[in-house]
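> example.struct
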């Protein structure tokens, strides 16, 4: 069987680990955003889909999402953080000010 290696910047979809390598974001945050987008689409517009139990992130929508996050001027409220924490299953990585 022949396996082709396609550079990350040319792939249509990436795994969570490849997305982490491309963006510098931790895999745990990417997975949390994906589950959050599925459970609470009003809180996260993170582009993701599953193939079986494997999380995949489409590269072009990911780039647009990252650019959108960089241009947002909103802040995370305590209520948002509480709801995100519930979706993450009690993860205390979300900090509020």
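> example.seq
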């Amino acid at each position: 069987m022949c396996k082709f290696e396609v550079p990350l910047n040319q792939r249509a979809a990436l795994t969570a680990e490849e997305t982490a390598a491309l963006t510098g974001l931790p895999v745990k945050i990417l997975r949390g955003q994906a589950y959050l987008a599925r459970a609470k689409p009003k809180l996260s517009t993170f582009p993701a889909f599953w193939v079986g139990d494997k999380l995949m992130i489409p590269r072009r929508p990911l780039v647009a999402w990252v650019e959108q996050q960089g241009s947002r001027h909103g802040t995370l409220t305590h209520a948002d953080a509480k709801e995100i924490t519930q979706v993450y299953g009690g993860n205390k990585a979300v900090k509020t000010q």
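> remarks
The first strand starts at residue 13 and ends at 15.
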